[in-house]
Amino acid sequence: MVAKAFAMLDKDGSGEVSIKDIIGIYDVSRNPEFLEFRKTKEEILKDFLSNFEGARGDRNGSITKVEFWDYYTDLSTCLPSEEYFVRMMESTWQCPEDDFSPATQQTVGHLLREVKSRVFQLARQDP
Q1: What does 64-127 look like in DSSP terms, one character per residue?
Q2: Is the CB of residue 87 less than 8 Å from the CB of residue 79?
Q3: In sequence order, what are the beta bridge partners of 64?
Q4: Is 46 within 8 Å of 19 (Cβ atoms)?
Q5: C-alpha of 57 from chain center
Q6: Residue 3 in 3-state DSSP?
Q7: Quick check: pTM over 0.90?
Q8: Are 49 and 19 in contact (CB under 8 A)?
Q9: How far is it, in rounded angstroms, from Cα 4 to Cα 95?
Q10: What are phi and psi of 17, to 5 degrees?
Q11: Tens-level pLDDT at each residue, the chain (127 residues)
């Protein structure tokens, strides 16, 4: 889940998540510091990223895979179960644990019903 979330965030595939990667994902428009003109959008985004650097991060404004992994390794020790961790990651980053998510299942089910219907229609038309 951590690797999947990181890959989703690392838009340019550089191996690091930077402000450029998250600028379209993280909305600062309701952040009190932004609304009160105490911080710029870039400052808020940099602060957001620095949260993931943890105690071992270098505070350079971007997150490496190792820093991201360390952050979630540390966080996971405080959570009640692996299932809880997976659900938290799914909710936070909108990435399902498996690629066969409920939405995918629904789409595949719909397509199967459509194919069966068309095959049945063709079979009725064929003398």
Answers
A1: EHHHHHHHHHHHHTTSS-HHHHHHHHHHHH---SSSS-HHHHHHHHHHHHHHHHHHHHHHHH--
A2: no
A3: 16
A4: yes
A5: 21
A6: helix
A7: no
A8: yes
A9: 7
A10: -100, 120
A11: 999 999 999 988 999 999 999 988 889 999 999 999 999 999 999 989 988 886 676 777 789 999 999 999 999 999 999 999 999 999 988 888 876 555 555 555 556 666 666 666 666 776 5
Other CB atoms closer than 10 Å to residue 34's CB: what's the count? 16
In this structure, which amino acid lies at residue 123? A
CA 26 – CA 90 distance, rounded (Å):
16
SS3 labels along 17-69: ECHHHHCCCCCCCCCHHHHCCCCCHHHHHHHHHHHCCCCCCCCCCCEEHHHHH
Q: What is the model's pLDDT at position 62?
A: 87
* Token digits of residue 109: 């089910």
